[in-house]
Amino acid sequence: MRAGLLRQRVILKAPTETLDAAGQSVITYPTDTATVWARVEPLTGRELKEAGAFASEATLKVIIRYCSGLTSKYIIVHGTRTYKIEAVLNLMIGRKDIKLLCTELPASAV
To answer: Which residues are within 8 A (CB) of 37 and not within 5 positions of it... i.e. 6 or more apart?
Structure first.
């Protein structure tokens, strides 16, 4: 991928599991794992149909350079919005680019 296509900065956050006062497991995202350049765009109609196999609600596509260990448990922060990763797709076998299919999280969920 040409570097000029990656024009936006996104923050990747890994989950941390903690216990609340009642002993219940709570997942939080306290620290930034990485800040990377990305291409962020809404999914087209065709891509939404293809994404249906991965995530029925995916509405956003984020393309980043390969990042090892990235899973669908991570979240992405782009500006003031937060997105849950529904699917991580390796575009080219050989660790070059990754396509992330995402859905927006409500502000109260993070």
So the answer is: 3, 6, 7, 8, 9, 64, 65
